Amino acid sequence: MDYIEYINSILKPKTTEKEVILDLFAGCGGLSLGFEAAGYKTIGFEMDKAAAVTYQNNLGSDCHAIKLDLDFVYPDAEIIIGGPPCQPFSVGGYQKGIEDARDGFPVFIDAVRKLQPKVFMFENVRGLLYTNKWYFHLVINELSKLGYIIDYRLLNAVNYGVPQNRERLFVFGHRAKFNFPKPQLKKVTVGEAIGDIMFTVPDGSKFLTESMDTYVAKYEKASSCINPRDLYADKPARTLTCRNLAGATGDMQRVRLKDGRRRRLLHREAARLQSFPDWYEFTGNETQQYNQIGNAVPPLLAYQLALALKECYKMDELYTKEEILEKDLQANNVLTLF
Ligand SMILES: C[S@@+](CC[C@H](N)C(=O)[O-])C[C@H]1O[C@@H](n2cnc3c(N)ncnc32)[C@H](O)[C@@H]1O
User: Fold this and answer.
1) Is 86 considered catalytic here?
2) Chain Cα centroid distance, residue 73
3) What structural domains does the chain harbor?
4) b/e 64-79 (16+ beta carbons within 10 angstroms → b)
């Protein structure tokens, strides 16, 4: 089965499990789609109205268009997942960490404290392990103190069937044993994902202007870039972000047509490179849709994480909260990296 057939068929909501999962900071539902394909019903919480509508229209679940805060009262749930806002930690961000008003971790920790789920997971940018590792330490310390064993790893989506190099941090909290999904050997290429569209000029195509081409050439020269940063059919894509999809920047995502023109990536192309199936429709204006796609956890990776989390969830707990705290079990993981 080829890539497009595969994602279109496997990434469909199913409800084989009785548990309901809360997805905090749910965006357009990339993470939730993976969990719904693994059999779970999800409930999303997302303050951006257009993203919440995308979620609600595509998934078999509700997405509450609200801004989460520390006073929020959650419905009961045994599994919490989420993508707390990551701008403060991106390499290009302000690096303000805990002082940044857009920081979602206090809310995520508060939800875990209030609901005491059996398992939880969150995703974040890799910068949290580097420039902002002091902050990461703080976050997992707080979560550990609630009586959870914490496992975390940087995963590159390209090793999980997604045609894109995208490294993100995944953190799991539990009281049993968690095994990360095994990476695959075969990498999927841009050509396999969008080969049927990438050299065409569909209606509404947007091209880089002459001045943007000049800007790109300058940018590439200044950053000693050997290969132009166009997409190559025989390789996976570089990381898709809100900035390089929606913004007119020197490193914006584009394809180079056979006549030499550079065309901006279409929403559908970007969605495929993020492993969204073709039936997934995005709502909002052009920029809102690019942002939803660029922000998402690739659903195909989310699906594999969901299966791993399901295994952990179904296991009998090996330790009680008290045992974890008494034996300082949670500290093993916390200390390895610091
Ligand atoms: C990284 S994106 C999440 C992407 C999502 N996990 C996915 O896979 O599609 C983070 C989202 O958090 C939302 N957000 C930020 N602060 C929020 C808050 N206080 N309450 C609800 N949503 C919030 C943003 O609008 C953004 O869509």
Assistant:
1) yes
2) 25
3) 3-183+298-331 (3.40.50.150), 190-293 (no CATH)
4) bbeebeeeeebeebeb
Question: At 226, is the secondary structure helix, strand, or coil?
Answer: coil
Residue 292: Cβ within 10 Å count: 29
DSSP 8-state secondary structure symbol assigned to residue 229: S
Please check the confidence at residue 169 and state whether its pLDDT lies above 60: yes
Q: What is the pLDDT of residue 138?
A: 87
Residues 6+ away with beta carbon under 8 Å from 267: 282, 286, 289, 290, 293
Distance CA 271, CA 304 (A): 18
Distance 218 CA to ligand 1 centre (A): 34
Three-state secondary structure along 52-110? Answer: HHHHHHHCCCCEECCCCCCCCCCCCCCEEEECCCCHHHCCCCCCCHHHCCCCCHHHHHH
* Residue 29 alpha carbon, nearest atom of ligand 1: 9
| Residue 151 reports pLDDT greater than 80 | yes
Predicted local distance difference test score (pLDDT) of residue 177:
95
Which of 212, 204, 288, 195 has its CA nearest to residue 245?
288
CA of 257 to the centre of ligand 1 (A): 34
Q: What pLDDT was estimated at residue 16?
A: 94
Q: What percentage of residues in the chain have a pLDDT greater than 90?
A: 71
Average of per-residue pLDDT across 194-203: 95
Confidence of residue 87 (pLDDT cuts 50, 70, 90): low
How many angstroms separate the alpha carbon of residue 55 from the centre of ligand 1?
Answer: 12
The whole model's pTM is what?
A: 0.93
Residue 293 and residue 282 in contact, taking contact as beta carbons nearer than 8 Å: yes
Average pLDDT over residues 94-111: 75
Nearest CA to ligand 1 atom 15: 85
Q: Is 238 exposed, middle or buried (0-12, 13-18, 19+ CB in 10 A)?
A: middle
Write down the catalytic residue from 28, 63, 86, 312.
86
